[in-house]
Amino acid sequence: MKSGLLLRALGLLLMGLSISAAAFYAPERSLQSLIANWAPAPSDFIELPNPSSSQLIHLRDQGPREDPLPIVLIHGTSASLHTWEGWVSGLAKTRRVITFDLPGFGLTGPSADGDYSDEAYVRTTLALLDHLKLKQVVLGGNSLGGQVAWETALLHPQRVAGLVLVDAGGLAVTSESVPIGFRIARLPGLRVVARNLLPRSLIESSVRNVYGDPAKVTPALVDRYFELTLREGNREALARRMDQRRPGFYADRLHELKQPTLILWGGRDHLIPPGNADVFARHIAGSRLVMFDALGHVPQEEDPAATLKPVREFLDGMTTVAAN
Fold first, then answer.
1. Which domains does the chain have, with CATH numbers?
2. How confident is the model at residue 52 (pLDDT cuts 50, 70, 90)?
3. Long-range contacts of 273-281 (CB under 8 A, 24+ apart)
4. Amino acid 321: pLDDT
5. Count H helices, E strands: the chain?
6. Residue 196's pLDDT band (boundaries 50, 70, 90)?
């Protein structure tokens, strides 16, 4: 009798697991299948030199080419160039604005050589500037992108005229809350499962986690994050990036940054809490900090209009100084 009940319970469990697997089965999607939705004009794809071969890069280069000081914007972990579209639409009438997907994310897809180190992302940024024949730019970035921006400015100061750091990474951070997608990517056992199973609700939870007001997270926004996560190779790339992180490696050199720097931060950022903004402001001489109390970890995406205002002022100020 007991063995019969046990077999029945086991059968129900297996049935439940099979149903869950079928419901959450999310196979990888090819680049070609995603282009129509996520890479309309002015998206472009270029090949950059890479230590082992070449690296495909998804790129948007918008605004007047005669702009003497373009701004290059770099997204964060598991995001894409789309996170900047609110800023780009406000800037591109008068400024040249360049956005791109880092290797491992968005439509760029995995790194050609499996290198997701900080230095590899700096090399990619420099290779992009060289490809576009840009001697000097303003570099802006959010989260991981902010880290790539300031580390590029630190290691290659002659290429960076100014910095816009938006909830930037690169410090040894104690997070108050980490999106579940990031937690899974850090755990070898679970991330193996995540290569084939990915509930859309998990992506929604992760995006809501980084917004100051989760009610602003729309189904269309979740669709974007979900579909680009499914891009062939991206889930494995995220796991490798997590393994190759070195939080705080260059943090003791922040004081060496001499470029004009604007620091923007969401007061409700639980991934990289606002106290980190003070660290950047304290160590980068002459920097300006603007806090947005109601916004979260991706303030440029959550409220493009409000966050763009100080950026315009910063860029206008740099242009005036350059002209004089």
1. 31-323 (3.40.50.1820)
2. confident
3. 273/173, 273/174, 273/175, 273/176, 276/168, 276/171, 276/173, 277/167, 279/171, 279/254, 280/165, 280/168, 280/171, 280/254
4. 54
5. 13, 8
6. low
